[in-house]
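Q: I have 96 residues here and want to know how they pack in 3D. Can you give me a structure?
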Amino acid sequence: MSMTVIVTRDVPERTRGFLASVMPEPAPGVYVAGNLSRAVRERAWAVVSDWHAASGRGSIVMFWKDDAAPGGVAVTMLGTPPRKLADLDGVLVSVW
């Protein structure tokens, strides 16, 4: 299990309500779980991905600890703008 953070922007209330039922919402549109299992994380992402595809509204970004990813942080996102993370000499940067 690892720390998971989901940040939403301009998503339907349905999406925010669902995420709040899975993870605490310490700030508007920000959801954090310190020990979310991979299975729960993947199921939650599948639900919000389906809903986002249906509405086409807003953006959602999810981060979690992944030792194999650049900087040890994996990221996936829906909406715009799409970005990737890259490790530049030990510094994690966002790439367009």
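Q: Anything worth noting?
A: Residues 38-55 form the longest helix (18 residues). Helices lie at 13-22, 38-55.
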